[in-house]
Amino acid sequence: MIITRFFVSLRMTVNFMESQKNIFVIAISIIVAGLVIGGAVLYNGSQVAKEQKADLTDTLPLPPDEVNVPTTITIDTKGHPFIGKEDAPVTIIEVSDFECPFCKTFAAETMPKLKETYIDTGKVKFFFVDFPLPYHPNAQKAAEAALCYVDQGKDYYDIYKKLYEKSDALEVENLKIYAKDLKVDTKKFNACLDDGKFADQVKASFENINKVVQESNLTNFGTPAFFVNGKPLIGAQKFDAFQGMIDDELETTTTTTSTTATSTTK
Question: pTM of this prediction?
């Protein structure tokens, strides 16, 4: 009887262990199946995302193969001050901002040699066009001050040098001091500046240049910007960069003049 009970108990234990083993196997199978299904879902989702991205890219407009920037750009210089000979063969237009640090670099390092070599010798007529950037709080008034100075028959280059030398302190009170140092009629100058006599002209200059930049696709535009007989030269360039362009223009002018003279003689 005891032996019989022993075998019955043993059999029950074996059955229990087998059932536990089956449960364990089933559990493992469920986990594995879950991982396989989850992986498949993730893979399918990534493929869909890739396809959607590819479809989106296909619908976007492609940029043009090249941007057409004119060889020469026309800028209206009417009413803008200049230095140099009226009928000089080469015209350079500077577009600048009195609080622009790169403009200051050009004014200090390149302009003096450019003036000595080409402007004072009658080869270049140099225009100054204002482009006071909105984030430079004193640039607008500084440009107006320069025009108020010229309005008294003074040489623009004198105030040009002074304002760039003092470009970190261009508040209205200081502008009046700088003008006084340059021997202007202070009463007339102060009234000109306070009344904003040239405010609209400076603003119009900014708007005109902005329009020119947009219409010409000049994507690398920044101050200072120069136009040598209409050909753009952007940035605070060294003298050599100007020299090459000016000499090319002078050579072209000389060749054209010689050809015209020969034709006339014949």
Answer: 0.71
